[in-house]
Structure formats: structure tokens, C-alpha cells
Amino acid sequence: MSEILEDFLIKDDIGYYCRYGDFYIDALYPAAKNIISHAHGDHATTGHQKMYATAATFAFMKNKFPKIPEMALNTVAFGDVFTLGNVDITFFPAGHILGSAQVLMTYQGVKYLYTGDYKLQEDATCERLVLVQADVLITESTFANPTVSHPDVKNEILKLKDKPSNIMLGCYTLGKAQRLTALINDLLPEREVLVHHNMSAVHKLYNEWGYKPLRYSLYNRKAMKDGHTNKIYLVPPLTFNSYFKAKNVLKAFASGWERLQKQNDITLYISDHVDWEDILWYVEQVHPREIWTIHGDGRSLKKHFEGILTVRDILSA
């Protein structure tokens, strides 16, 4: 059995660095070679000499960064293998948002799996997570706490049914807004979805690149004031927070975080991350020899697997 290199992937001030392939994953600052797991702003940045990501991820990035140079973009299809240094790399769907990828890195016979952000819950708007076995599971731990259990998403959406009012629904612009639109289209067909102008370009890209046609209209004030009170208006967080005094609407914010449910009229626990039971299930599928945690608190996982499996935070430079 090949030896696991404890420093195969480390965290430094730029991002997650692999010296054996001389590349970064999800670098926050410009790097020579950067693998981008998905297009959310805390993972996808520009200024890199070479970038590696899925076609959908680059489509979202080009929408946000119009001047991104085409010559820097290296599009990678799911399942294809490419090599940086002496490391073989393969992307597999992560199920987080459209185009999101897990990054499998193979070096000297050892497989290291960087999950990026991922989810197991059904989502018709993006690729479903693909199970991958690896020696080291490098997992996000955003909700790696036994007290966290994400409820059934359909039951959460049905909380919006039969409300005698228009609803202002706060959510993230990329991924969450499109998932909510699809769920409302399917489960609440009597409701009309209006989207904030900052979201409309991403909705269009989902209709171009995605798997589920989205039915929606661009927000206008007259539509919210006139006619039937069957509107659900999707707004990004900053807009939602600025409308705290909005009248004649019910307020909700779709998130797995309890703190974002406070002072709203409707709680809506919808997350695009794995919860505690999801992570435990995925560990069983990956069957790793070690778990390295990132993006959160791994102490509960370390305690749970004590004496069974090595669990630690990723090393820092």
C-alpha cells in the first residue's frame, strides 16, 4: 500500500497548494496554475496564468469577469484525465451547483479527493454528485456537526404554499436562486417567480447550460403591486437586507444557517452543502484511509472517528 504524503495538499495564503504538481486549487490570489472547483466567489477568482475548470464554471466566471482572457482558460470535461507535473487529475460532479467539480488527484498510486463544496440532496438544475473512492478524502466541513440535519427540501418549499401574500425570498445569486426557481416551478405552479435583475443573467446561463428549463420573469414594481398576490420575488442577500422594512410581503431566506432565519416571517432551511449524516454516508462510500477537513470545523468528525480513522485539518504552510 502506497504511503500517503501528509503535505500533498497544504493551505497557504494563496489557496490550496500541491507542490507535487505545482498547482493550486481554488486560489484566492493570482497563481501560475489554478484548478477551480466551482464558480462561487470564495472559490473562483481571476488573474491566474492558467485556469482549469468545467465549461459551465467558466461560463459563470465570464459573466462575472467579462475581461477574463480566453487564452488562460483550460476547459475540462467530467471524467477526462489531465496531468500537471506528475499528478493525474480528474473532475467528477460535486452536486453543489451547475458545473461544480470534485477534484481527484492521483500521485504515486495514492488517490486524494478534494470535494470542493458538495451536496447529496436531489437538484434537477445541476449534475448529481458522483461517488468516488480515494485514499484521502479532503472534505468541506461547513455543517460537520451532529446537531445539523438538513430537512427535506420539498417540505421546505411547501411552506410557501397557500400564503395569502407575495413573498420576498432571499437567496444566493448563483446556484441557490436557480434551484429555488425550479422547485417553485414544480411544486408551486400557481406561484409566479420574479427574479432580481442581478440574477437574470445567471438564470439565462442555467437555461443555456443546465438540465431544467426555468420559468421566471424579471422583477418590476408594478407586477408586485398589481394583480394576484401569487408572486415570489427572489433577491440577493444585500438587497434582502436593505428591504428589512418592506411592507405587504412575507420574508424568507433560503439557507442552512439558523442565524439567517431570524426575524423572517417564514423559516426556509435549504442548503447546498452536506449535513452531518451526508458526510458520514459519503465517508462510507469513499472508504478513505484518512480524512482532511477544510472550510469549517472538523473536530466533531475527528471525535466521531477516533480510534477508527485518522481525521485532521489540512496542513497549513
Automatic annotation (TrEMBL):
GO MF, one annotated term: exonuclease activity
Keyword field contains Hydrolase: yes
SUPFAM superfamilies reported for this sequence: Metallo-hydrolase/oxidoreductase
Taxonomic superkingdom: Bacteria
Keywords linked to the UniProt accession: Exonuclease, Hydrolase, Nuclease
Domain Metallo-beta-lactamase residue range list: 35-163
Gene3D superfamilies: Ribonuclease Z/Hydroxyacylglutathione hydrolase-like
Signal peptide: none
The keyword Ubl conjugation is assigned to this record: no
InterPro entries from the UniProt entry: MBL, Metallo-B-lactamas, RibonucZ/Hydroxyglut_hydro
Coiled-coil region list: none
Name the UniProt record assigns to this protein: Exonuclease
Organism: Sphingobacterium arenae
